Amino acid sequence: MDIRKIKKLIEMLQDSDLKEIEVSQGDESVRISRDYKSQAYVEPVIQKQVVHEANFALEKEVQQEEIKGNQIISPIVGTFYRKPSPDKDPFIKVGDVVQEGDVLCIIEAMKMMNEIKSDFSGKVVSINVEDGQPVEYGQHIITIN
Asked: 67-144: which CATH topology?
């Protein structure tokens, strides 16, 4: 809401006998009230969307139950790459057997290429991120059984 409009509302309140005025415009609203000393003050109110966290937690639990195997979690925020370079073969494919310490992928962060190594030995069950896609810290990227 424009500050000039708010100032105009304050002036209108001071010139009238009203004790309070509230105006809404889109997602924003402003309430202007006089205190007992007849001075006006502005109390901005921003409406926020309510998120149902209980449903989100339940969905997360269901997702965790569906994942069978050891999860490789992204240790950083960046861009996921399955290959060491565009003209090379991917480090791993679904069905490959990997050993602890094998390089699984690269995550680029701030122009640095970070090799992500396996913490587990086993068979690659799933690769949950497409090549070149962004990943978040803590995101499940690969499953090894």
From this structure: OB fold (Dihydrolipoamide Acetyltransferase, E2P) (2.40.50)
